[in-house]
Amino acid sequence: MSALVPDSHRDLLEGPIIVSLATRMPDDTIQVTPVWCSYDGTYIVVNATRGRQKHRNMVERPNVTIMAFDPQNQFRFIEVRGIVEHITPEGGGESMNELALLYTGKPKRYGIEAPPREVDERVLYYIKPERVNTAG
Fold it and tell me: What are 109's strand-pairing partners?
């Protein structure tokens, strides 16, 4: 079942608000990581590095939660419980630069053009909302 993100809270997923991504570890404990994200109207898209713990968690246990708070109103938030439906490296680098511009105002990650050997492999995770809770 798919849930819709209401227009009233869509801005919280379209940035530049750092959101919390909760994934499940192999021992069933929860890992929460601050991440940048985007929302394309269907999926919440998270960009992360292949091989990190959150990558392994989302590959092996695709149920995740995203939580975002309005920095201007602590009582306004959105919680999205969803499933990672698609993982791809395609477009990962370009997406990272788009997010860097949105979140930092600089056109490249870290504000510089990194040498190829220093660029980690960016992966896109497409999260399909299954349950959405909002307040404010």
Answer: none
Phi first, then psi: what are they for 75, rounded to 5°? -95, 0
CA–CA distance, 129 with 115 (Å, rounded to integer): 36
| Alpha carbons 21 and 42: distance in angstroms, whole number | 17
Q: What is the DSSP secondary structure assignment for residue 3, as one 8-state letter?
A: -
Q: Using an 8 Å Cβ cutoff, are 98 and 36 in contact?
A: no
Helix (H) or strand (E) holding 33: strand 30-35
Three-class DSSP category at 101: helix
According to CATH, the topology of domain 10-135 is Pnp Oxidase; Chain A (2.30.110)
pLDDT tens digits, 94-113: 777 788 777 778 776 655 56
Q: Look at residues 108, 112, 86, 89 and name the one whose alpha carbon lies nearest to residue 98.
A: 108
Place of tokens 């395609």: 90
Q: Which two tokens stand for residue 91?
A: 């477009």
* Single pTM value for the model: 0.87
CB 27 within 8 A of CB 84: no
DSSP 12: G
